[in-house]
Each structure stands twice: as structure tokens, then as C-alpha cells.
Amino acid sequence: MVARVAGVFDEKLTEAIANSKILVVGAGGIGCEILKNLVLTGFPQIEIIDLDTIDVSNLNRQFLFHKEHVGKSKAQVAKDSALSFNPNVNIVAHHDSVISNDYGVSYFKQFNIVMNALDNRVARNHVNRMCLAANVPLVETGTAGYAGQVELIKKGLTQCYECQPKAPQKTFPGCTIRNTPSEPIHCIVWAKHLFNQLFGEEDPDQDVSPDTADPEAAGEAGASALSSEGTTSGNVDRKSTRQWAAETNYDAEKLFTKLFGDDIRYLLSMENLWKKRRPPTPLTWDNLPGKDDPPTQHSGLPDQRVWSVHECAQVLANSCKALQADLAGRPEGDHLVWDKDEKSAMDFVTACANIRAFIFNIPTKSRFEIKSMAGNIIPAIATANAIVAGLAVLRAQAILRGLTAAATSVYLRPKVNHRGQLFVPEKALTPPNPKCYVCAPKPEVGLACNLKSLTLKDLTTAFKDGLNMQAPDATVEGKGLVVLSSEPGETDHNNDKTLEQIGLNDGCALLVDDFLQNYEVRVRLQQEDDEKSWRLVTDTDAPMPAPKEEEKPANGSNGSNEPKPGPSRTRADSESDMEIIEEDDDETTVKPPKRRRTEMSDEVVELC
Amino acid sequence: MVENTDVELSEAEAEQYDRQIRLWGLESQKRLRASKVLIIGLSGLGAETAKNIILSGVKSVCLLDNEKLKEIDLYSQFLAPPDKIGENRAEASLQRARALNPMVEVSSETRAVDNLPDEYFTTFDIVCATGLKQEQLERINNVCRDNNKKFLCGDVWGMFGYMFADLVDHEYSEEIVQHKAVKRGPDDNEKNARETVSITVKRRAIYVPLQNALSADWRKPELRSRLRRGDPSYFVLKILLRFRDEQNRNPDPAKRKSDTETLFRMRDELVKELSLPSGFISDELLTDVYGVVAGAAAVVGGVIGQEVVKAVSQREPPHNNMFFFNPVKCVGFVELYGQ
Ligand SMILES: [Zn+2]
């Protein structure tokens, strides 16, 4: 059917298209555009997969969706709209996560090309591994604002998505968040943690109360603070914040008094913290700045107006009530998941972040700005998506034509480079990194940790978060001893044992395997007494291929062969943090099959 | 140039345009919302351009075309449904164009450009023309120029494409990122105590009309030296415009063999005329110029759409003055001609 009109393409391409089968992963901004191009060009067999439903903020670029589609499946609506362009093609839509046992290696093998139009690293890593395992060419795409890129990934021929260490997630020391915030983002992270403590999934790493173990405050401060404040905060801290809040019926004034009065006074008592810093100012509920201010004239969007502290307290009270009601309407044990597009959740974080910022003499921000920061929004626009999707489909045509070696990465730059280039192709394919712990013939990686303190549960986290595995199994090399099993219950009884307790020692190697991803890696354990958590160590002897200079506008700017960071790494340089991804709601296309994660994955709090 | 930018956005607009406002700011969005755009030629490129401009949230878009929808259009023209073959391309595109963004007024005009008076074109803030002959493009460009209106044109032949812009005397603001040292507490070390601040500067760009750009004198040494950079896209455009002017049509997929021969002959003539190095314009570039390939239309339509946004919002430096997409190398670049 492709040759609606013969002669548009040469015979070879016409035939290759007619016999092709393409998988599009993601039906967001780029996915809609790719699907349109494929359907118009006459690609006869297409499958599209997306877990997400349509939101009103998608409509400025995801042009296959209209207002009446809000709330519906992206994959299904995209299919229906695209078929109206060309009813003669066959599209299969999956409203599903690509990370699922339903889409195994044999599923991927049926396609000539897989085209990624994803918005998050977890799913990209996963599809990368599936395409390597199935040996199917993967066309990887992404945009961020005006910039974007298209990259071919082909086993053995090019580097894979994980060949170069990606810029680490931005992390903040826990004591900065809990004790000594100095930037708006610290207060925003704290406010999101508070949301989770009160309404979301409780996570001990997201404690919002003063951290008495802060090394800076060590010694007398903590002790004297405890004895003087023993009855109020001491008691409160032993209870979970959630339990305490529930007992007060989420009373806004009580909550406020504890968080912005008592806790701040407690921090003040840790005197060492304030020797070189400006100390915070505790607030009292009925005497807040801005209470008697007349309404100010504001131009711009309502969300761009910065609230007074008094207004923040009102918003806190109202959003708290709404969230409490939401939580109460759910089954016992369920919790809320913070979402920047949920009004009350966003109001709550804006109000709490600003009140805390005021207390610490940090500039307060508008709801509009806080939404960008809290929601990790990288704005996406129609034009950049259209360009990247157009380039991606032209690259796919070249691959089908047999010109794979010429299908180099192309970068869309936000502004032309010194040679006047707006789309910059690389001169040649970048070969695989022989030391890549994903696509090397015998993948290997080091794991630095303290075997005396790292538990088996922590090890599972290291494999999932550090090695992006979904369901890891691990055995001791040479012994066949099963250390971790992805079968529920099989090794759970060992979860709290340390690696040393189960007999693992320095230099010992584990074979870690993910059945779904068809991926096995040899992990060398390295004892490090000072390591508080864990850290991946990639081979530093053989440098990885350096990325080409200016042709990497946004992604992959960190070409150095640093150890891949785990959560205990020191704070990331924020300049290198930008990764090209298409903005959409974080993690939307990912639903790990066996566990539930909160949406809090964009910051990691370090242990102090 | 665009007026009535003082009205605040409605809640629905703020919600729908949330992401792009975060990128280009509220002022730009207000300017977009006040601007009137004319799109001439509803081929695949016209459809792509219309889609991007309508999604951006301008005041109004008029789709102008006097041609009928043909089967070959369906390779890239997704605004016109396949069952409307034989109907006027602009009218056939109306319904879907409106559905893209109900907040934008979309209308159609079915008269040929040659039958429209000069004043017609000056009722818009910006005109984007595709599919016309050089002479028609120059006429509309000059009308716009005389009335201080912005003019863009472009085309896609197969996988090859270009864009030209005449924004006359264009003032715009540009955001420049600077690094500033800050120190708030003892936690701040050298590295994290730096903050990026962006400042906005005003700039101005002067453009030339299309006839200047297309009649660049290649005997001049400054242009001669450009040949060494080795991209012949400018000449491919000259050949394809000449083909359209002489044959009164675009290269036809049904006559792929004979039209390719014609194109090669025209190439050889041009090489001789401008004393270009032989082999400079490869055969490869002239063989994939049939129909409008969807991927290429998306690419060039994306560039034109973004340039319209930049032009009416007067934000960020617009391209001055020609953009080419060379599909053989997959390179897209901007060069200034005719100045
Ligand atoms: Zn690799």
C-alpha cells in the first residue's frame, strides 16, 4: 500500500517500507509526530505503546489529542487519530508500560526498527537493553526546549544508551534539607518530603524534622537541645509525623506551630549551625507577615504572583483539608502520590516551601516557578518535537535502505553553531564502549560498599537504582550460591543481613541477572570502610571514547570516565545535570511490574 | 509590530500554553495571541507549518490555496482527509486545522494569489508562502516589505527543503546566560556557589528581499569562498525553482526518469553559468525530490513554525536569511545571501 503514488521513493526503499514493522515507544509529543510521519509515509505495520493518559497541558504539542480526549489513553487516541490520515495502515495500540513481562525479547524481535519517544531514563535504559538483547536497531529521540537529538543504537555497531555514564541526579545532603537550607530548591525538596510524610508513602530518608546527627552540630548542641526541648519535639519525633498529624486531625495551626515554630526553635538550639549562618526565625500562626497587607496589583498569570507568608498559611490550611479528605476516601493503608498537576498537592508544596524559605531568609517564589522546580519540568514545544520526529523517521528510512553506517546521530541545536548549523550530524557512528557494563560482550562493574553495613536489601536497591534492573537475581560466582532471587519470598528472610553476614567478602564477584532484560553483569564487590551506602565503579584504565566536542549540545556533556555515582556521591555539578528528555509527567511511561515507587525520584537525599 | 498585547491570558490559555510559556515567557505568548498569520499553499509543508503555528496560539490563521487536493498530497498533508481528494486544499484542511486549537480563528481563502490585490496581504502580520513560483514569491515579499510586514517562504521537494525569511527591520530581545558567584553559607564551595542568571538584551536584524538572496553574485570572492564549505543546497534550490518556473509544475513521481534527466541537464547548465566546480551538485541530491516526504515536511515545517514564533514574539534571534535541509547529510544550516 505504501506506493500510493509510485516514484516518490526509489524501488528499494519503497519495498523496504512495504515489508517493515515498526515499534514506537511513547505517544507523547515526539511519539505523536513520529506516528504521523510513519502513517503518512505508508509504513504498513506499526505498534505504539504508552502507559499514560492525556492531560490538558499536553495539547500545545501532542497534536493528535484534543480537549475532548483529556483523560483517555494516549496510545489508543493516537492510533485513532493517525488512522484518519491513512486508514490503510495497521496500527496496534498498547495502553501499557513497556517495562512488563508482556514485552520480552521475542516481542521486540518482530520489529525492523524500534523508535523511542520516551520521557524518562528508566524506560530508556530498559528499551535499550531489550533492543540489544533482540538485536533490533533502536532510534532514540529526545527534546528539551528548543534543543533535541536523534541517535541510532545498534548492537556491536554503535554505543548503547548506557555506554556513557549519564549525569547523576541532583542530590542534596539530608542535613541541608532538614537543618540548613540556603536555596529555594532545598525548601521545595523539604516540602515534597513533608507531603510524603503526611499523605504519601512514608520514607525514613525523607524525614523533615531537625537532624540531630548533623556532624556540624555534633557535641553539645544536640544534647542540650534535646534536654531543653525534651517534652515537645522529643515526644513528637518518636511518633511518626503521619500519626501525629492524624491525631491532631491535620489541624493547620498545630501543624504550623510544630513545623515552623517548635522545630525551628529546636534548630536554633543547635548553636554550632548558626555560627557562620544567618539563623532562622520561628513564626507564630496568628501573627504572620502580610496579614494586614492590602491586595497588590499584579500583572501576569495569577500563578506568577508571589504569596505573602500569611497567604501561604491560608493555602496550607485549605490544601491540608483537601488532601486529608482525599486520603480519608482511600482504602486503609493507601497513600497519595505527589503530582505537580494536582491542585492541592501543588498548593501544599508551594505554601510550605515558601513559609520555610521565609524563615531561613531565602527568597520566596511564585507557584508557577515552584511548579517548574518541584515538577522537574523541562518545557517541550511543538516545533522541536516535529523536527526531531521528522529527522528520526528520515533516519529510519535510511536504515531500511541499508545505509545504517551513515545514520549518525543528529543534534538539533537551540541556536546555530559557529558554522551556521542548526541540525548537526555526527561524522561517524560512535563505536560501543568496550567497558560498558551493559553492552560489552562480558559486562562487568565494581560495587564499592562497606560489606559490614550494607544489607541485602540495600544491595537490591543498588541493582535496581544503580544498574537499572527490574527484577535482579544474584549468585556468587564460582559457588552458585543464590544471594538474591526475584521470586518473591525466596531470599526475603536475608533482607536485613549484611553482606558480610551472608559470607561475602572483598573481591568476591556476583553474577547478577535480569531475566526480562536478558542481561547479566558480573559485579565485583570492593570493601570501603568509609562508604556509607554504595557506589558503582566503572573501569578507569581504558578511557571511554570522548564525546565529540560541540556536537553534543545538551546530552552526554560529561564524557569523563568517572565512576558511576550511587546515592552516596557528593553533590552533582548542576551545570552538567541537563539530560535531553522530552518533558512530560515524570515516570509516566514506566510502571515497574513488581513494585510501586513514588514520584519522588528526581532528587535523592544523601545520608550525612 | 503586533498590537493588543495588554490583555491577560485566560485560565484556559494559561493551562494549555503552560509549557511553552515556561520556555518563551508570558510576553511572547501575549504577542503570539495578538498576531494574524497567512499561510499560502496547503501542501504537506503548508499543513505542517499551519499545525505548528496554530498550536502555538496565534490570534488567527488564514489558509490560502486555489489548488485541488491530489492523491500525492496525502503523503504528507494530514490536515485534509483522504476522502476529500478533488476538493480545494485549503477548505478541505479547515476542519482539522480548527480542531488542533479551538482558541485560534482559522479561515480559508480559495482565490489564486495572482487574483488577489496587494492590500490583501497587508492585512496580516506575517505571511508564509509555499508552492509558488519565484516571481509570485517576489511580488508578495515586496508588498509585505513595503508595508513593514514579515515574510517567510519555503518548500519541500521530496526530502530536500529550504526556508527564506525577510523580517525587514527586526527588533528582538535575546536572553543571555551569565554565571554569577554567590555565597550564602559555609556549605557553598567554589563550584556550587555559582548561579546562572539570564539577562535580556535588545538587538536588531536587517533583512534583504528574496530577489537579492536568489540573485547572489557567485563571481564575488566572498561567495566563492563559500563553495569551499561544500554544501550545494543553495544551487539545488535554484534548480528546483527553475524547474517549477519552466515546467509550470514540480518534478512528478510518475515521470521520475525523464524529470531526473531534466534536472540533471538544468544542473549542468547552472554549473556552467556560475562556473561551479564539476561534481559539486551531486546526482544524489537531485534524485529524491519527488512529492513531499512526510519526515522532511515535518523538519522544514518545524523550522518555519519556530521562525514565525520568533518573528511575532520578537524574542530570540531569528534566522537571517536562508535555511537549507540537505537530506543526504541530514544537515540543516543557515546562510545569509544577498547582502
Ligand atoms: Zn553500552
UniProtKB/TrEMBL annotation, chain A:
Residues 575-587 have a biased composition (Acidic residues). Residues 8-436 form the THIF-type NAD/FAD binding fold domain. Pfam families: ThiF (PF00899), UAE_UbL (PF14732), UBA_E1_SCCH (PF10585). Residues 201-242, 279-300, 527-608 are annotated as: Disordered. Pathway: Protein modification; protein sumoylation. It comes from the Eukaryota. Residues 216-234 have a biased composition (Low complexity). Heterodimer. Belongs to the ubiquitin-activating E1 family. This is SUMO-activating enzyme subunit.
From TrEMBL, chain B:
It is found in: Nucleus. Residues 17-327 form the THIF-type NAD/FAD binding fold domain. Keywords: Nucleus, Ubl conjugation pathway. The keyword Transport does not apply. Its main location: nucleus. Pfam families: ThiF. Pathway: Protein modification; protein sumoylation. Belongs to the ubiquitin-activating E1 family. PANTHER family: SUMO-ACTIVATING ENZYME SUBUNIT 1 (PTHR10953:SF162), UBIQUITIN-ACTIVATING ENZYME E1 (PTHR10953). Heterodimer of SAE1 and UBA2/SAE2. The heterodimer corresponds to the two domains that are encoded on a single polypeptide chain in ubiquitin-activating enzyme E1. Interacts with UBE2I. This is SUMO-activating enzyme subunit 1.
